[in-house]
Amino acid sequence: GTLPTLTRKEFIFDYRFGAPIPSGGTFTMPVTAPSVNGNIYVDGTIYPRTDAGIQSAINTAEITGATVVLPPGGYALGANLPILINKKVSLIGSGLSSQLNVASTVGATTDVFLIQPTAGEVLSGIKISNFSIVPVSGTPARYAFNFDNATYAGEADYGVMSNIQVGTLGSTITIYANGAGMGNGSMTQWMIGPTN
Asked: How far is CA 28 from the centre of its chain?
């Protein structure tokens, strides 16, 4: 988010006269923060309202432990899909007014989100909620969420996904779990709330 603009004026205090003496000019400086109160906002200030902006915020959150927040408004998804989640992260929208708009040019084999742990890793604690995924036109993309764990032999266990509305994409399947060859399955102990 953006913090208020700060104005600073420097003074030297002259004890002989008991008054400050201006020692420098006044300067104004906008202050921006990538994270406010442990949240990273994809609001167009630092992180653009695009798939690349969301990915960049997720990458930062995976390191810092912050929650990625999608404020109300539209988000353009297309050239940089899928959005990869391969570490513990929370991605929280502001309800259906946080609308991820999938471009009609996104191919039929491209997913919106790819949850893909690294080899041998058990990925726990992902939280995804409160936004909508809608096509701009047509039926672009494949799955809204692809848990492709077989590719890298990792597991995505113990997560929460809720309050997500998905429009008609290229596949009739909203959440796909490809867990072939997984010891404990690719997607166990997930709480999946209302998704439309």
From this structure: 31
Give residue-wise pLDDT tens across range 126-165: 899 999 999 999 999 988 988 775 555 667 777 788 889 8
For residue 4, the SS3 value is: coil
Amino acid, single-letter form, for residue 28: T
Alpha-carbon dihedral 19, 24, 30, 31, rounded to 10 degrees: -70
The two structure tokens encoding residue 107:
């191919």
Euclidean distance between CA atoms 185 and 174, whole angstroms: 19
pLDDT in tens, 36-45: 678 999 999 9
Tokens of 123: 């990925």
193's tokens: 């709330």
Query: What are the backbone dihedrals phi and psi of residue 56, each rounded to the nearest 5 degrees, phi first?
Result: -65, -40
pTM, entire model? 0.75
Alpha-carbon span 81 to 93, nearest angstrom: 18
Where b means 16+ CB within 10 Å and e means fewer, 138-165 reads ebbbbbbbbbbbeeeebbbbbbebebbb
CB 194 within 8 A of CB 163: yes
Q: What's the N-to-C CA distance of the chain in angstroms? A: 30
